[in-house]
Amino acid sequence: MSTVKEAVEVEVPVSVAYNQWTQFEEFPKFMEGVEEIRQVDDRHNHWTTKIGGVKREFDTEIVDQFPDERITWRTTSGDTKQKGTVSFQRLDDTHTRVQLVMDVEPTGAAEKAADLTGTIDRRVKGDMRRFKEYIEQHGASGSWRGRITPG
User: Fold this and answer.
1) Domains in the chain, CATH or no CATH each
2) In the prediction, which pLDDT does 54 show?
3) Confidence (pTM)
């Protein structure tokens, strides 16, 4: 399993950054290779990705969510194995640090090669950079401010 870490400082208040991250169905606007995310309910999402010509579908579960602080998830089905946390740190009234820490277990030959060559790491860094550009240009398009606790 590989761990990928990336952080960006965004020029929006913490609530704006957090609110946009809760809009999972909009991830394809800034995440490369994510074709679609369908939010099933408050805890569950169904993902469709296509990376390096390989299409994957998998489900995720949010296991911990605390408004303006963090969202933690894990995969629950499909042949993609990952878990991670995105955290939000208020720097001042108009700046927020968004940090993503994700553990990815490459499952197929293409994913293992991408991991070895650093492609996964570069993709996450690019996704975070695109999130920064997106949120600073558009602001949040919605929000979900509920609390999900582990267990």
Assistant:
1) 2-138 (3.30.530.20)
2) 81
3) 0.90
